[in-house]
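Students often ask what a 'structure token' actually looks like in practice. Rather than answer in the abstract, let us consider DinB family protein, a protein of 159 residues. Its sequence is given first.
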Amino acid sequence: MSNTLIQNIILQLQDVQEQENWLDENFKNKIGSVTEDKVFNRPLPELHSVAEMISHVLVWRIETIRKLKNMDAKLTVDSPENWRTNDELMAIGWTNLKDDFFQSLYTLIDILADKDDTFLSERYRNDYSFKYLIEGLIHHDLYHLGQLGIIIKFLGLEK
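Now compare that with the structural description of the same chain:
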């Protein structure tokens, strides 16, 4: 059983969330730089808050977990949980949201760790492979990590 590719994917997921990487950025450092009193603030009406962004990334991770487990998964861009409001997220609480976000990576790793590389070519739905799904998740995480940087920069400019 070979899982060289799976191990590489796991490392990429860990790098983006909390390890040193070529970008010199990760979610742990980014959100760790924001005080709790600012995570629900939208620095501009057109920008999401840090909490909204973390919640959005989290729901797509959960959707991926459901697909990896062959569970029912129906999240769409129009689903209400795709972009929860700050009021909804305040009710959940920043600590809970952050904990769920970080736990989602460990859940993904637990699912992938015992798979071999042939799993990546298996199809889950609509003729997409698990490789396509997981790589898409990494791209999605990186995209929103960049957006978090912009949001946090603007939060620092608030008066």
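One point worth highlighting: Strands lie at 123-125, 128-129. Ask yourself how you might have guessed this from the sequence alone, and why that guess would often be unreliable.
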